[in-house]
Amino acid sequence: MSICFAALLFTVYSCKDEDSPIVPVGPEAKSINGTIRFVDTNFILTGGTYLISAYPSAGWPPAGGPTAFDTIKISRTNNVLNLNYNYKLIDLNPGSYVVSVGFRKNTGGQSPIMSVYGCDTARARYSLCFLNPTLKATIGAENQGVENINLISWSDTTKKVY
Asked: Can you give the CATH number for the domain in which 88 is found?
């Protein structure tokens, strides 16, 4: 019995933490993540896609496509539309980015933007903050990712800010 106990103790002692991989803490490098909270349920469920996008702050307001984007898959729980969505934008180079929520139509044409990080469009819809947002998501020179870039947005595209 004491030999089995000694063997067990030796096995446990031999499996030190330095043999285990190190799990990084914090956001993934070269990424931006956060949560979008929609304040209404007037989603367009066909004919296009809701997007969370990052544009270089020097190129804002946008004249072209974003540097990175992810689709927001509108879903239901117990037949009720979900209003909160987590997102992650990846492969961003160091720099400052304006993050926005928009809708891209399948048929082309202007894609409305309903929210911009730093401009709470749910309460300040007629503000011009979206033209020069004060808050930006910044990927540092060491490629540090950014987390908790949270937005409040309309889902109703008629309430676009841009």
From this structure: 2.60.40
